[in-house]
Design a protein that fits this description.
- This protein is an alpha/beta fold.
- The protein has 4 domains: about 50 residues, no CATH class; about 70 residues, Double Stranded RNA Binding Domain; about 90 residues, Arc Repressor Mutant, subunit A, CATH 1.10.10; about 50 residues, DNA Methylphosphotriester Repair Domain (3-Layer(aba) Sandwich).
- The protein has 13 helices and 10 strands.
- A 4-stranded mixed sheet has the order 3-2-1-4, sandwiched between helices. A 4-stranded mixed sheet has the order 9-7-8-10.
- Strand 1 and strand 2 form a beta hairpin.
């Protein structure tokens, strides 16, 4: 055996990983070659020196390193979801198989998950969201979100329960009025649906639109929150996007709480912003249908 081959196997010899004839050949070479023998001693000394450098981390640090992120399963009916969370809050909600959830979590956060019970207050938030009660201030871990993602999340949380907003409305709220498609893609990638109500965003063209878990689930969620889907569908078929008041000359989105207070004889159906402006209507300060 030549020196190069022996040197490549020195550490494996030291740790006992070499076996049989290979182990014997390296030992014989080292016994005959003073230079390789010294190299073996150097590697052995270095290995012990490195071990001596190790220090015990603080207790809080050990706890942080030891724990993977947690997951729990919430809901006994429909929908039932997997919830991934850190010590800061919810990081991922997924409806589907556990294997898909685990892979998605690892891809998004580079972390493993282990089964742990959600903190009771967070569990109640998820239950409330699934049942249609809604959550005003969910406990979330958005530490890895981009600034625009955070703005989108904040805007989604401002949409009241029982109301819907359009993607163009959302784009204006985050300061990107011309980037409706980009904002819509952020909504589609929402990692924490249900508690952050992306289901409350609908197309400007009418109807409820698409949803990560299917349009049927989206409609069920909106119905549980009190949205009149029959009226919304009827207005969409007629091309009506806004509702104005003859008495106040304020115009609203159809599901706005102020629109629901307009008496039937005072309701003015409008097909869009230009018709509303031409008719002398001003936008509602609550739902902000346009600026």
């Amino acid at each position: 055996m030549r020196c190069k081959s022996a040197l490549m196997r020195i550490d494996a010899l030291r740790t006992g990983e070499l076996a049989g004839a290979e182990n014997k050949a390296v030992e014989q070479h080292i016994s005959r070659c003073a230079s390789c023998h010294d190299s073996f001693d150097d590697v052995d000394h270095l290995a012990h020196a490195v071990k001596a450098l190790a220090i015990a981390p603080a207790q809080s640090c050990r706890e942080t390193i030891a724990l993977a992120d947690g997951f729990d399963r919430i809901g006994s009916g429909t929908p039932t979801v997997w919830v991934g969370f850190s010590d800061r809050g919810i990081r991922l909600i997924h409806r589907g198989s556990f294997d898909d959830f685990r892979k998605l979590y690892a891809k998004r956060y580079g972390r493993a998950v282990e089964r742990r019970a959600l903190p009771e207050n967070v569990r109640r938030q998820v239950d409330d969201a699934l049942s249609g009660e809604g959550v005003r201030k969910p406990r979330l871990d958005l530490i890895e979100a981009t600034p625009l993602e955070r703005k989108v999340m904040d805007a989604l949380l401002r949409i009241p329960r029982g109301e819907v907003r359009t993607y163009s409305w959302l784009a204006r709220q985050v300061g990107k009025p011309k980037a409706v498609r980009a904002v819509a893609s952020y909504v589609a990638r929402n990692a924490v649906p249900f508690v952050v109500p992306c289901h409350r965003v609908v197309p400007l063209s009418g109807g409820v639109g698409k949803y990560a878990f299917g349009s049927r689930t989206k409609r069920q969620l909106l119905q549980r929150e009190g949205v009149d889907l029959e009226q919304l569908d009827a207005l969409a078929r007629q091309g009506i996007r806004l509702v104005g008041s003859r008495t106040t000359h304020v115009v609203c989105l159809p599901t706005c709480r102020d629109a629901r207070r307009i008496r039937e004889e005072n309701r003015v159906p409008l097909h869009g912003e230009s018709e509303a402006v031409k008719g002398g209507f001003r936008p509602c300060q609550h739902c902000q249908p346009f600026r």
